Amino acid sequence: MVERQDEGAERLAGYREAIDQGRTALGIELGSTRIKACLVGPGGEPLAGGSHDWENQLVDGVWTYSLEAVWAGLRDAVAELLGDVERQYGVRPTTIGAIGVSAMMHGYLAFDEADELLVPFRTWRNTTTERASAELSPLFGHNIPLRWSVAHLYQAILDEEAHVPSVRHVTTLAGYVHWRLTGRQVLGVGDASGMFPIDVATGGYDRRMLAQFDEVASGHGFGRSIADLLPGVLPAGADAGALTAEGAALLDPTGTLQAGIPLCPPEGDAGTGMVATNSVAPRTGNVSAGTSIFAMVVLERPLERVHHELDLVTTPSGDLVAMVHCNNGASELGAWAEVFGQFASALGQPAEPGAVFEAFLRSALDGDADGGGLLAYNYLSGEPITGLEAGRPLFTRTPDSRLTLATFARTQVYSAFGTLALGMRVLAQEQVGLDAMFAHGGMFKTAGVAQRLLAAALGAPVAVGTTAGEGGAWGIAVLAAYRASAAGGATPAQDLGTYLGTEIFADAALDVVEPDADDLAGFTAFLERYSAGLAIERAAVAELRTRDTTQESDR
């Protein structure tokens, strides 16, 4: 016991020294429902954290977050992290080895020549860009999903929106925050690849497609070159600037954090998910589950055909990735858990939300393997993969189905994976090689449940590591640490994959679950029912109106 206490004290002293000397990295991620800050030590070990809950708003039919909410949330998360450091280690850091910013990919933040926001931030969740996507995809010979930044810009041009002539630069949420912190308008290549297609041979935007966009946009009276509007593109480890005095004040009004801290290239949540699961090499992939759910598979070769179900993006190092992105993830599962929590409170047995969610999730393991004839759709918003322009969360069943808590829970988990499974089957048809699929996100904190059912949905082994619940804030902190590993401001000596394998994941423990035969057969039966029942979801979208936008924006 004494030896164990001595080891603990020695480890604590080592962390305190690393914090005091600035041998740490700070990652900040702006997710759909939470802004998280994570401080890591020299080996990527999480040392402290902070968070801030926030929600998107539906304003005039547009899913958005205000810029005021962005900065209020960032300050709150950083303040909580600094307080956590002080409580645990008795020191308050004034400097950090490097900082990284990550956020939801895609969307549309457009600014004028005075750097003023022209229209409210349009997030990835908006699906109003169908005409733009339908025109650009065949023009480029490259799938341009509805949520991509170039689709939003082109749709605004097609709609002759009043702000379009004033656009001088366009960026993502991570790019915006990084710009305000450093003064540099750049993006990590992974995040940039969700704005406009990347040429993996050059590591920059595809020049042929840039020229094609300019030509077609000019036909609609748009006189600027899109290359002049987009952020610069940087690979992982590159010099992306340093925290300015103004940026330090935005993050930490108390003045604890000092200017001059280097920043790594800002990245999207897809890139940080790849880093957090050590899946940046060809034939590796990962699934990230949150408000949305998506799978990333690093390709050995380009795909044979263009598929509307698949995005082609890149790793933070610029390697080609096939992305199956579903707008709807675990939110509906969480909503039902909240209902059961309210029921427990009504019985006089209140429980913590996390405990309720875990109990609900665990009960899914006892449900019928095929969902017992139950059917659910988790569509809070539109879902392009299945052709839904809007969403209506839906639960239905036949009179002879088995309605139990366990089977209901399993159906809700299956629903969270349903659209993803449809997209992954397209990859299988392309004969894409995959050696390992890693999973991360809050669903996977409860050991052995979502992981097991995801293995059935994918028909492949699923690995979960000890960092599965850390998510993107930890992933961007690791990218910041990778930037800090560069000597004298140059690029790091190791490539990103080698760095992750030797410095971060060398001793990482993985729990790998193979698909269970009964689960696999059960999910296959469920997916057939799910595919056939999409007509019900379409009818619900057509017939059930949402509340008016004023009510929606007050949520």
Automatic annotation (TrEMBL):
Pfam families: FGGY_C, FGGY_N. Transmembrane segments: none annotated. The keyword Repeat does not apply. Its EC number is 2.7.1.17. Residues 286-483 form the Carbohydrate kinase FGGY C-terminal domain. Keywords: Carbohydrate metabolism, Kinase, Transferase, Xylose metabolism. Residues 25-251 form the Carbohydrate kinase FGGY N-terminal domain. It comes from the Bacteria. InterPro entries: ATPase_NBD, FGGY_C, FGGY_Carb_Kinase, FGGY_N. One of its GO terms (molecular function) is D-xylulokinase activity. Belongs to the FGGY kinase family. This is Xylulokinase.
